[in-house]
Specification:
Bound molecules: (4S)-2,6-dioxohexahydropyrimidine-4-carboxylic acid, zinc ion
Number of strands: 13
Strand order of the largest sheet: 2-3-4-5-6-7-8-9
Strand content: 15-25%
Structural class: alpha/beta
Radius of gyration: 19 Å
Largest sheet: 8 strands, parallel
Distance between the termini: 16 Å
Order of helices and strands: EEHEHEHEHEHEHEHHEHHHEEEE
Helix content: 25-40%
Shape: globular
CATH topology: TIM Barrel
CATH class: Alpha Beta
Number of domains: 1
Length: 345
Amino acid sequence: MSSDALTLTRPDDWHLHVRDGAAMAAVVPHTARQFGRAIIMPNLRPPVTTAAQALDYRARIQATVPAGVDFQPLMVLYLTDNTPPEEVARARAAGVVAFKLYPAGATTNSDAGVTDIRKCYATLEAMQREGLLLLVHGEVTDPAVDVFDREAVYIDQVLIPLRRDFPGLKIVFEHITTKEAAEYVAAADALTGATITAHHLLYNRNAIFTGGLRPHYYCLPVLKRELHREALVKAATSGSPKFFLGTDSAPHPAHLKEHAAACAGCYTALHAMELYAQAFDRAGALDRLEGFASFYGADFYGLPRNAGTITLKREAWTLPESLAFGDAQLKPLGAGETLDWRFVG
Ligand code: DOR
Ligand code: ZN
């Protein structure tokens, strides 16, 4: 492999928001261009809580994939206090692969989320039995807990007891942002994995405050201090199969990001593999990118690895300032800045 071109097995995105309607039509082609599959987050309004809704949503997503592009959305149901255990078998029959646990109030459209995990135990039993994964947004929502500590506190308060009570359940700790989370996952059993975003590998929390308040760098869980970013880079580039790619690309209209109560979420689907290549390159670990991006997630989910390849070239290019997003505008993370790597197909 030359250091100026990188050819990888086609990667997958194990954590993605595509929204719905015209907004979805604007973003799905970006993901479909780079990735073979993506785990589709169910936090629509109203959320995707039933197998029937997931089938409808999948069909709407598929209708936005450009002709001739081989891309498969993998569907996830939104877990609520009231998800009946019977929904799990229906989900499996529909090809749904996982449930997403949002603690109520933790993030965008999480009002219908779980207020107390114990309310979900019968449904979690069914998931463990049927082989569906549990994807966790791991932050406590107690306003008394500092926003930068919410992930670490969640490990002790929720994840450790959950892991103990469901030893056969596959759990993905989504978009981890701290050294504590990276260490917890590295030391956990083989049924515990984690996704890591490109932005948490590239930026620390200073990015939110550089030269003024920078809302495009605001996401949840929020960027943390440098020592945490370093721990995430170490985990992602370690070659451990427990850590895999999940962009958490989360598009919001620019006017709702540049707002007094800015929405959380970074749009990275346009340039996802370029961002990950940059992070791995800076760590001197480009040889570890393929495992992280293309192998370990599929292996963890028990799905085949993709056929086919993609190629990235070391070639400077400048990100557009904004993209069309239905009737609104969408600003990619780092809009107007120059990237070192370019996806060429
Ligand atoms: O920053 C985020 N944006 N974090 C989430 O958990 C949700 C996401 C969204 O849907 O906008
Ligand atoms: Zn997300």
